[in-house]
Design goal:
single chain, Immunoglobulin-like, about 15% strand, globular, signal, DUF1553 domain-containing protein
Length: about 800
């Protein structure tokens, strides 16, 4: 018996063996004497896991005269065919190798060789000659986004003094970075290095410029793909470029590497990634105008049973449980009824449940009462109000931009559409294609803005570039503003893409009578020709995916642009991510309006499933919100498990967050039953109905109301601050609510309620639960001993309103 047990223990402790080796790429073709190819060797272990063993494997070539090996990089010696063999112990693998054109003089490409090399050396980075005004009188485009300009700056500017054609090695272009002449950037180039040989060879070749016949770069990829590592393990990366003519090239040595979360992983300039601790992040590689990523993850060192990941209601739980299981993070259990009631009421309608609603829900014994509650909340008018408020933030609705009257009208129209459950695609189309009298078509108010407005219009019509950026960010989750001046540093969009996309919306103009700058109607009659900032050429209208749209003369381009936009995968992903972020306090992609390919989702299968569900429901937001709120994932408690206490990305538990400014102000007014008054608004108006960020309110500003100057989520803050604590503790506004003769305490006292009844009412109104036995005992003792019962009750309510349980959605 003991021997059998010992055998089992030893078997369990035996590390997995190497089952086979894989070499990447599976074959090598080197063309020309300057060609090179990095190879990766991966050990596939007996348990199915993979490990980078490139540094441990023995590499050899046959015949030996064919290739030169520099570490794991192959370089040609002579033409021919052969093989590369990788060995690790008794396991080996072979791949075929072919070499040609080693006797042909090499040719250099300015676009594919020179510009990327300058970017790799840092010469065209923003801290050097890629700065807006260059450095030392020498300006390059940022990271080489405009090679035609860089060629002119190097070869033609200053009468060509930067290069010396008769003695290329004497060129200032080389001698300064070599440190042979004074150079503010110091020595950045080593004589005889591959980079030096390339730049010198290009000069010796006659310094040719960009060639139109060169095949464009079609795709960039990182091999060997996504990897699961242990903390401390490394993984060599290989970056492969594929051109439109089918040719592939190893560009690892010219690619720029970075990592999204440097606390989880690191990467060197030559593509050696290292997992630093448990978690998941992405490594990014950039070459020319293409970017790509690879995900690195390391499970947490927790021993968990499979049963911890079985609770489910729908596909959301399947995707979340799969991710948590892979990372060894145990999810939390189900939240209480009172927690769910308060949480879902805040998330769906931005409003606390009333005391009566809390009593009814807690007393209800029906097994489907949570689903019924969700349906009830989604049918209330506050649903449209809270989502219109969020869209108002994105659309920067404020008096300074479009006058208070029109800001209120647009936000009210948005609330009507959302309460009617208008599909998100239909709503977007109505906004983007709006035309005609604005009195009849309030969707057109989206296009109005005094700051900044279209030049030479005479109407408050937003400038084309600003409308373009707002549309991309709001409806596609893409921040394309960087591409206005240069290629996007961390996304696929080029400056050309920006102006082609902007040309789709350049026709918008105002018409009719002009009342204080507001046009009577919206038209698409403006000169459609938008000029490119860099080239000054007219930009053809084209979507961001570079597909072709054909327009008749005077056709409103926005109609086809809107049809293209709502059909994009990012349109559905962006909407799904925003809905998820509202319910969980953070998106599956963060920031929530930054869906670039180099900012991957924390759970891509989850986001893809949500987007597919949204499309299937014809973009009905209420349907997807119901699915989210019914999931076990949403209904988990905010109390973390021992293995999830550091998790803020994978939704193992509900993350508590402070109520936003408007919702907190409304909660204070509702619980105390003393409504706020807002300038120019009808009596009883709630904070979530205030469409103009310039309507004064110290309370709203203290708690992070966004000024609506910039579109997006960055202006709103829900982080606790000292000023907020002082406002709740000592402000006259809160004190007036507590002591008001019309407030809840005075009402309950006049109704001759007992201490027990009053405490029940206050707790249910503020926290959606009854007092706990210890709380009830302590408070009733204080009330009994108090000389002034009214003041003691006010103090009890004050304590509730200052508690984290009231201030936070949990």
């Amino acid at each position: 018996m003991l021997a059998s047990l010992l055998a089992v223990v030893l078997l369990a402790a035996t590390p997995p063996k190497v089952a086979r080796l894989e070499v990447t790429p599976s074959s090598v073709a080197l063309d020309g004497r300057l060609a090179r190819q990095r190879v990766l060797v991966t050990a596939v272990l007996s348990d199915g896991s993979r490990k980078d063993v490139t540094g441990q494997a023995k590499l050899s070539t046959w015949p030996p005269s064919l290739l030169q090996l520099a570490g794991s990089t192959l370089m040609p010696r002579t033409d021919g065919t052969g093989a590369l063999k990788a060995e690790l112990g008794s396991v080996s693998a072979k791949i075929p190798v072919g070499v040609k054109n080693t006797g042909v003089a090499p040719t250099y490409s300015f676009v594919n060789d020179v510009a990327p090399t300058l970017a790799k050396l840092g010469c065209s980075q923003g801290t050097c000659h890629g700065a807006a005004s260059g450095k030392g009188g020498f300006k390059l485009s940022l990271r080489g986004y405009a090679p035609e300009q860089d060629f002119l700056a190097i070869v033609k500017a200053l009468s060509g003094r930067r290069i010396t054609r008769e003695a290329p090695e004497r060129s200032l272009f080389l001698r300064k970075p070599l440190g042979e002449l004074p150079h503010r950037g110091g020595t950045v180039l080593t004589k005889g290095s591959p980079e030096h040989q390339l730049l010198l060879g290009w000069l010796q070749q006659g310094a040719p410029g960009p060639a139109e016949k060169e095949a464009p770069l079609a795709k960039l990829e990182i091999l060997p793909g996504d990897r699961t590592l242990l903390p401390g393990e490394t993984q060599r990366l290989l970056v492969r470029a594929t051109y439109t003519d089918g040719r592939t090239e190893d560009v690892t040595h010219r690619a720029l590497f970075s990592v999204n979360d440097p606390a989880i992983a690191s990467v060197t300039d030559d593509g050696m990634a290292k997992q630093l601790r448990s978690g998941e992040t992405a490594v990014l590689a950039k070459y020319r105008d293409k970017l790509t990523i690879v995900r690195l993850s390391a499970p947490f060192p927790n021993q968990l049973k499979d049963s911890a990941f079985t609770a489910r209601t729908n596909y959301i739980d399947d995707a979340v449980n799969t991710k948590l299981k892979a990372l060894h993070i145990e999810p939390s259990g189900r939240c209480t009824e009172s927690e769910f009631l308060r949480r879902v009421s805040i998330d769906l309608i931005g409003t606390l449940p009333t005391e009566a609603e809390a009593r009814a829900f807690l007393d209800d014994k029906a097994p489907d009462k949570r689903e019924k509650l969700i349906d009830s909340l989604l049918s209330r008018p506050e649903f449209g109000l809270i989502w219109a408020l969020k869209l108002g933030d994105l659309f920067t609705l404020r008096k300074e931009n479009m006058s208070r009257k029109y800001a209120l009208q647009l936000q009210a129209w948005l609330a009507e559409q959302l309460n009617a459950d208008t599909g998100w695609d239909t709503l977007a189309t109505k906004i983007l294609t709006a035309s005609g009298p604005l009195e009849d078509n309030r969707a057109g108010l989206f296009w109005l803005s005094r700051v900044p407005q279209k030049p030479n219009q005479g109407y408050w019509v937003r400038a084309t570039e600003n409308s373009t950026e707002l549309i991309a960010q709001t409806f596609l989750g893409q921040r394309i503003g960087c591409a206005k001046c240069h290629n996007h540093p961390s996304e696929k969009f080029t400056q050309d893409d920006y102006y082609h996309f902007a040309a789709l919306f350049h026709q918008v103009s105002g018409g009719g009578e002009n009342e204080d700058g507001i046009p009577e109607r919206l038209e698409a009659k403006h000169d459609p020709n938008l000029r490119h900032l860099r080239t000054n050429e007219i930009s053809e209208p084209r979507p961001l995916d570079r597909s072709a749209l054909v327009f008749a003369k005077d056709e409103d381009r926005r109609v086809k642009a809107a049809a293209w936009l709502v059909a994009q995968d990012d349109f559905a992903r962006n909407a799904a991510n925003r809905l998820w972020a509202r319910c969980f306090g953070r998106g599956i992609v963060e920031p929530i309006d930054d869906l670039r390919s180099t900012n991957p989702a924390s759970n891509e299968p989850l986001l893809a499933a949500l987007a597919a569900d949204l499309r299937k429901s014809n973009f009905k937001l209420k349907a997807l919100l119901k699915t989210i709120c019914l999931s076990i994932t949403y209904q988990r408690t905010s109390t973390a498990t021992p293995s999830s206490r550091l998790d803020t990305r994978y939704f193992s538990h509900y993350l508590p967050r402070r109520l936003p400014a408007e919702e907190l102000a409304d909660a204070l007014a509702q619980v105390t039953q003393v409504p706020d008054r807002y300038q120019g608004q009808p009596e009883g108006a709630r904070a979530i109905e205030v469409a103009d960020a310039e309507i004064p309110s110290v309370m709203l500003d203290t708690f992070g109301r966004p000024p609506r100057i910039l579109s997006g989520e960055s202006e709103r803050t829900c982080e606790p601050a000292l000023g907020q604590a002082l406002a709740l503790l000592n402000s006259q506004e809160v004190q007036n609510k507590l002591t008001s003769g019309e407030g809840i305490v005075s009402q309950l006292v006049r109704a001759k309620k007992t201490n027990e009844e009053i405490l029940d009412t206050l707790f249910l109104a503020a926290l959606a639960r009854y007092p706990k036995p210890a709380e009830r005992l302590a408070l009733e003792a204080q009330l009994t001993a108090a000389k002034n019962r009214d003041e003691a009750l006010q103090d009890a309510l004050w304590a509730l309103l200052n508690s984290p349980e009231f201030l936070f959605n949990h």
